[in-house]
Amino acid sequence: LKAKYLDLIGAASDEAALEDLRVQALGKKGEISLQMRELGKMSPEQRQVAGPALNALKDEINAALAAKKMALADAALDERLKSEWMDVTLPGRRRGAGSVHPISQVTEELIAIFADMGFAVAEGPQIESDWYNFDALNIPGHHPARAEMDTFYTHRKEGDNRPPHVLRTHTSPVQIRSMEAGGAPIRVICPGRVYRADYDQTHTPMFNQIEGLAIDKDVSMANLKWVLESALAAFFGVPVATRFRANHFPFTEPSAEIDIQCSWVDGQVRVGEGDSWLEVLGSGMVHPKVLAAAGVDPDQWQGFAFGVGIDRLAMLKYGIPDLRAFFESDLRWLRHYGFSA
Ligand code: PHE
What we know:
By secondary structure, this protein is α+β, with helices and mostly antiparallel strands. The chain has helices at residues 2-11, 15-26, 31-38, 44-83, 102-116, 130-133, 144-148, 173-182, 221-236, 288-293, 310-318, 331-336, and strands at 120-121, 127-129, 165-167, 186-195, 206-216, 242-249, 252-265, 268-271, 276-286, 302-309.
């Protein structure tokens, strides 16, 4: 009996099997329990021999069960340790942190710089009516500027009689909208996306401009020059000389294209030094017809407007050669220029 149970216990593969064996041997109707019951029927002499033997057997089986139970638990723990181990010497896993896109960053910088000079931020829609994008800005239907701007036109279904809309080709329509809304005097900058059908290293079909508008009783070109030179110095961190070149925009009179001072070193441009010039801005005194179209009396008010490419400024400030990279969401590129962790 002893050998039988010790063998069975040794072979048991889990706790449930052990419990079965315990019941089979020592349970109420277990093999050993039944034999214990027989003791009462024996003579005292027989009992004196059989009693201690049975008790010893019972103890031995209990001990064997307990030992096997421990062994099974140890094995289970070993198994877990083998499958659930962790190498604490492995380097941690990097988590990329998001960051502000360079264009957004530069836009915020410019907003802060102009805010210091009293300019509020104004915005307008990117899908703009013909009227705001062209006519109100003194660009009538036949004007060559419409063709020059590589305009994206929106498609209208047969029977749709709403006025034609375009993807705005510049932020200048926001001049009209903000004068309509606030009248004069006014001082606003209008950052935002603009669209032209053009694509190469320095042109993308969507890009960003910031428009400036200052209207008051006696605002002049001299004020424009001061505002721009102050803003450029704040933006680039060095004084930047400007050069005004006569030019034509339908919505300003007189108009000037503005170049900034720079030098070229090994194909890299450096702003604020040297004797080269880079065209970055369009500007001028707001045309009386534009004021009138926006409901501002040109006999009482005058002022300047300018428009500058935000992407261009970002390229210049950070030495980025290809404009298209701004819109490719390549994390390696963002990291290279320090824009992402
Ligand atoms: N809207 C012009 C452009 O996109 C820039 C400009 C703005 C010129 C304001 C004069 C005044 O090229």
